[in-house]
Amino acid sequence: MPLNIPILLTWLRVALIPLVVGVFYLPDAWLSPFGKGVASTAVFIIAAMTDWFDGFLARRWNETSAFGAFLDPVADKLMVAGALLVLVEFKQLNAMFAFIIVGREITISALREWMAQIGASKSVAVSSLGKIKTTAQMVAIPMLLYDGTLFGVIDMRYWGTWLMAVAAVLTVWSMLYYLRRAWPLIKEREGQLK
Predict the structure, then answer these.
(1) Residue 123 confidence (pLDDT) above 70
(2) What stretch of H or E contains 95?
């Protein structure tokens, strides 16, 4: 396993996941419910920034690796899934949004693994639609974790919920896009097995 700054940043993101979730389980005497939302939001934003920064540094310093390519999306998916679970548990997000997003990630991860096995991984390479979906999620989640009014004006739960709805639509759309791209190969393989 290579060890460089981009991979260390990815490991930092993995290490921050329990903090995003765990802060909500602190006793209220230690941190108010509002304080928990602020702390969780701050940790999530720091973790999300490492996602951008580790990729930037890996490309800039030419320190990309197969392990880094594996660990980076795993860290992202764990971070999103952990945040979604805590949001559902504390009733700050409808479980249907979490199901759609996590279900899509499982489906597309399995599809990518299968496509890699048959040597067609480029057919399901990350698209711009997937990146837009991820951006919508990464903005909506901290808004929902914050769960208050920002500057006394912006209702973060309201806007976070709307943005999460957009992310859910983009999630389904991007899943269908990947499945449509893979469908001819699936049919071809199915024909070979008969």
Answers:
(1) no
(2) helix 95-117
Lowest mean pLDDT among 67-76, 111-120, 185-194: 185-194
Integer Cα distance of 120 and 79 in angstroms: 28
8 Å CB contact between 42 and 34: no
Higher pLDDT, 23 or 120: 23
DSSP 1-31: ----HHHHHHHHHHHHHHHHHHGGGS-TTTS
Question: 138-177: buried (b, 16+ CB within 10 Å) or exposed (e) per residue?
Answer: bbbbbbbbbbbeeeeeeebbeebbebbbebbebbeebbeb
What are the residue ranges spanned by the domains of the chain? 1-91, 93-194
Q: Would you call 104 exposed, middle or buried from its count of C-beta atoms within 10 A (0-12, 13-18, 19+)?
A: buried
Per-residue DSSP letter, 32: -
Place of tokens 């490492």: 50
pLDDT of residue 46: 94
Q: Which of 18-27, 138-147, 154-163, 176-185 has the lowest mean pLDDT?
A: 176-185
DSSP secondary structure letters along 97-153: HHHHHHHHHHHHHHHHHHHHHTT-GGGG---HHHHHHHHHHHHHHHHHHH-SEETTT
Write down the pLDDT at residue 178. 84
Q: Which two tokens stand for residue 170?
A: 């983009």
Question: Three-class SS of residue 91?
Answer: coil
